[in-house]
Specification:
Strand order of the largest sheet: 1-9-8-7-6-2-3
Order of helices and strands: EHEEEEEHHEHEEHHHHHEEHHH
Radius of gyration: 23 Å
Structural class: alpha/beta
Distance between the termini: 68 Å
Helix content: 25-40%
Number of strands: 11
Number of domains: 2
Largest sheet: 7 strands, mixed
Length: 351
């Protein structure tokens, strides 16, 4: 059947072979693209110039894509006392964040609330507004993934500009916004038949059967509230190194520190913010050396309670999206799903 150029981009198309490659070439030629690329045995989100570098088969990345909006190190402004200048660092460049998974999209939606409602953050919001998001449903599952338990995967329902689903050698592409439609506007496309949604759901259903990890979520608030002094926290204190790796790779952690970097000439410098972690000893330290979370068990509880208890009253959602990065990053292999399961089992055995 001959393919004709449509006057408007369909809401749903299937791309394979040449059309898929053409889309990648068009997008990388017109935009700064940040996508999943291989780094040794791992994957990272990094700028992409050659579309062949994009690895759509990735399962997870070392750092979450939140780094695009909330950067690990971000210069807020630079200054020169002699010139009397004060320059804010900013970039209005439009970019495309390619191939992010549903759990990470849910995490970004959480950060939108953190940085966009009560105390709007202009740096985060500028990056967010200038980014087109191409998300990808998960048809494969990593050993540490538990997004199914958190209701954040493997399928994505909203929040994307374009949504991709791997159908095996071809991709179902669903349009979410006009920004996403614009990415497809240079292609000759025909609407996909509705029956393709059956194949999509079949692959997502198969993915749901592959999860090995589960998180107990029913009654989790009551479980944590009633067991703040449980012996498990002391056990974790002896096990945990308090290195902060778990929070550094978490897609919903949003804490940062602001520091001034003065150059050796004492005339120029910059102010920047850097990711911070509640797991670090210095995090809760205030003037005169007082520290509200000096002991490691207090810091471990803060991380877990914040994700699974404190987040919901403040932002209307749990603070964990089940990506499993914290499990993979922990050198002692502390598993948040295991901690909750053991806590629940201990309570049940005491009844």
């Amino acid at each position: 059947m001959a393919v004709t150029r449509t006057s408007s981009v369909p809401d749903m198309v299937v791309l394979s072979g040449e059309l898929w490659q053409e889309l990648l070439k068009l997008v990388t030629a017109q935009y700064k693209v940040i996508g999943p690329v291989r780094r040794g045995s791992e994957h990272v989100f990094a700028p992409v110039k050659d579309p062949r570098d994009i690895d759509m088969a990735y399962v997870t990345t070392i750092l979450p894509p939140k780094k695009v909006f909330h950067q690990p190190f971000q210069v807020l402004f630079s200054f020169d006392t002699e010139e009397g200048t004060l320059a804010e660092e900013e970039s209005g460049e439009e970019k495309v964040l390619w191939g992010i998974h549903p759990c990470d999209m849910h995490a970004i939606a959480i950060l939108d609330k953190v940085y966009g409602i009560e105390y709007p953050d202009p740096y985060y919001l500028r990056n967010r507004e200038n980014t087109i998001i191409v998300a990808k449903n998960c048809t494969e599952v990593g050993e540490n993934c538990f997004c199914l338990s958190m209701g954040t995967g493997p399928a994505l329902r909203s929040g994307y500009d374009l949504l991709l689903t791997d159908l095996g050698g071809r991709y179902l592409v669903e349009v979410g916004t006009e920004k996403g439609r614009k990415l497809l506007s240079g292609l000759e496309l025909v609407p996909a038949p509705r029956v393709v949604l059956v194949e999509k759901e079949k692959r997502l259903s198969q993915a749901r059967q592959k999860f090995k990890k589960r998180m107990i979520t029913q009654g989790i608030q009551e479980l944590l509230e009633e067991n703040f002094r449980h012996p498990i926290w002391e056990e974790l204190m002896r096990e945990c190194l308090a290195c902060g790796s778990c929070t550094m790779v978490c897609p919903t952690c949003f804490c940062y520190n602001v520091v001034d970097k003065i150059d050796l000439d004492l005339k120029t410098g910059k102010r920047q913010r850097e990711w911070d972690s509640c797991m670090l000893l210095e995090y809760a330290q205030v003037a005169l050396g007082q520290n509200f979370r000096r002991d490691r068990d207090a810091r471990i509880k803060q991380r877990i309670y914040h994700k699974l208890l404190y987040y919901e009253p403040q932002f209307g959602t749990l603070g964990c999206v089940g990506c499993g990065r914290c499990i993979g990053a922990c050198v002692k292999r502390i598993d948040i799903t295991d901690v909750v399961s053991r806590l629940a089992e201990s309570v049940e055995s005491d009844r």
